[in-house]
Fold these 2 entries.
Entry 1:
Amino acid sequence: MKNLRLKAARALLDMSQKDLAEAVQVSRQTIHAIEKGDYNPTIKLCLSICHVLGKTLDELFWEDDENEVE
Amino acid sequence: MKNLRLKAARALLDMSQKDLAEAVQVSRQTIHAIEKGDYNPTIKLCLSICHVLGKTLDELFWEDDENEVE
DNA sequence: GCATTTTGTCAATTATATTTTACTTTTTGT
DNA sequence: ACAAAAAGTAAAATATAATTGACAAAATGC
């Protein structure tokens, strides 16, 4: 359920969870929870994250079995 | 803000709001609100809708100014 | 090894997505 | 024109996304 693509995209820009959280104006815990796969963010937040990380929805949030863990 | 692509994709399959609502197990009002653009659904619900309608997240929920009204 | 940053985690609160019921307005078919 | 289905709308209740604060564990740099 982990979103490793999000983690990777963030790493590619050398951003910490805190950096991303501030960029999209949510709490650090929210970013952590999304990466961990604990719960489902709103589409609005997903879009904000995509814009900051320079990715599309399909690239970060489309789910095929290839891109997930656990 | 209206999501006309969702409406169109639904029309293409000859599904009513009620049909789609039942297929993704939410209320008809939720589908209506999403099409109207009133609020932001969760990514999980967006993914369910995509699967039922045979579209990707980018096709239905990516926002460039081309695809929206008002 | 030590200090600092980053990440992981938890509980309690707040904001908001979603439901339910109910009613009105449009659309569609005959 | 009429009936039936579909779509639009609204208020109150419920479920859950997101916040906040605080602390522990792991990673990074010196």
Note: The longest strand of chain B covers residues 2-3.
Entry 2:
Amino acid sequence: MVKTNRRPTITDVANALGLSIATVSRALAKPDMVTDETRARVLEAVERLGYRPNLLARDLRRQVSKVVFVVAPRLSPFFLDVFQGVDQAARTMGYTVLLGFTDRNGEREEALYDQVLSNRADGLILVTSSRAPSPEPRKPSHRLPPIVVALEAVDWANLPTVRADHRAAAKDAVDYLYSLGHRAIAHIPGPVGTSPMARNRLEGYRAALAAHGLQSSERLGEGGQFTLETGYAAMQALLQEGPRPTAVFVANDEMAIGAIQAIKAAGLRVPHDISVMGVDDQRIGRSYDPALTTVRVPAADIGYRSMVILGKVLNGEPYEETVVVPTEIIVRQSTAPYPAP
Amino acid sequence: MVKTNRRPTITDVANALGLSIATVSRALAKPDMVTDETRARVLEAVERLGYRPNLLARDLRRQVSKVVFVVAPRLSPFFLDVFQGVDQAARTMGYTVLLGFTDRNGEREEALYDQVLSNRADGLILVTSSRAPSPEPRKPSHRLPPIVVALEAVDWANLPTVRADHRAAAKDAVDYLYSLGHRAIAHIPGPVGTSPMARNRLEGYRAALAAHGLQSSERLGEGGQFTLETGYAAMQALLQEGPRPTAVFVANDEMAIGAIQAIKAAGLRVPHDISVMGVDDQRIGRSYDPALTTVRVPAADIGYRSMVILGKVLNGEPYEETVVVPTEIIVRQSTAPYPAP
DNA sequence: GAGGGCGGTGTAAACCCTTTCATCGCGCCC
DNA sequence: GGGCGCGATGAAAGGGTTTACACCGCCCTC
């Protein structure tokens, strides 16, 4: 009977050479613990048989997977930038990074969370602006896995965090519009109900207005969902509602593009009639016409630093509890002085 | 001495109840093989102790991980769409999908490939338009893991494939421009050196011109890298070089946006002076001003079908060797009749 | 020449789970 | 009342690797 053609294991390699599996394992993992000759023979046999170690077995034994997950609420270019940074750091640290999305769906969050709790990954980078990984936070008796929170602090646990100061970023933006001469400055907020980030940006907006003694336009309702379409709709509503603002600060770039489209659709011009400013510095804003003035949130940098901290956590090294990365105003073509010179 | 506080295992649960680990395992995995009472007790203890099964151990035993990888050459919104489709299909099939990027870096491709070969995942969806997962394809004696190729067939192995007919898509685009009255139709190709997809689109362009007895502009060199910047540069070169075309067919949407920017920068208007058409139907084109006329490649659909096929492969069921998904012209504002009416 | 150190190798346990096979008790049937 | 089937459980093997420990020559030293 023909031997069934399964994948070769370390035992097959050992048998082919008349060695023990321990020696083969050592030849591969700790080259200097075996003779040069043995190592050469092992490598040859490995090549010849097409042997690959079973990572599952290895991880099970070592109790470490060298894999980390990045968990993001949805598919968005912005989160991709964060991922990019994580990936870059991880590579230098010998980790593999894998990406999962929750779609703000509790069940899916649970599942990803369980993957880590169940040893499929060593740690987790939560790129979220919303809620806990489980509907109700777990009982404290159940230890959390190693987690670093990127972008925005979470309120359901005290975790190491790399974030931007979204409140200050928003305030800077509005201050900038003010410095251009604008006094009627509206705001299109994000999903303030679910996103602390959106709330912080709203707060920054209010704080800036207050600092300049201006009236804020608070008739905007719940805000958009950080998507282009909701930005469009919000701007449309804004144009129909009351006195037209001369400038709009929008809670992220994507909604800002939507807002510009709505303004154009209404037969107005940006920045001639209305200045528009976003936050994030996403690609879509950089290449739009007019190119979007925005506040840059260094997504890749946030990802990179998060991974570095997660590495320290996993190694039991001391780490910074909270890192706040700086934001920066990027002036492009969607804003202009008021009144127009 | 205090017992070290490691994660509870199935043994801990069993001991806490005076049951055997077999029963606990069954209570969790095959609920109807145990008494109602036993199951209730087990679930209670699991909850109380915070037990989570170790997926590594489970997979090792079962020889199946229920994880598949999506491997893409780079981070791009287009690949995200494919991923989205894969993810959706996978969810209904009980698989977890994880995403990895190669950056066209042979070493990284190897690493991801090894993850699958090493049992960390059951299969692979290769979203690639470029080369084999290893610098030189492996010896045929070394079996390939289950792979489905999405988007574009590969030439180094005979693998199940879900693809669009890029050649026909390009031909359709040029035919459409022809039907608008354009005769001087230029092409900005993708990286024809490394991407069969770029080559196919170039071929479609040539075929269309030939069918209409037109001269093709072949002075474009190696083409862009499917990025906005290279599209900009290519268009700039095109404008400086010879007689100005009345229409440009660009090998993907991102480069097409770059091309439009270059045209605008040169003081010309789209589509008034030059019509521009892309391929893919990416978001960036949909929301641009002018909105981009393009040929839609149903990325999510490709991803979905790829995953379905991979599932069949993994189950040993029969599957379609090659699926060709239809493309579709989407007319927006970046194209106009010539001469202008 | 006996003891000690040392480099290289083998043996076997451990990692945590699933699953086959055996066991056991119980009710049922003739 | 004995055999049988059946449902629930337990014992143990097995999955592929790493690694602590034991072993075995060998050379060196006194």
Note: The longest strand of chain B covers residues 67-72.
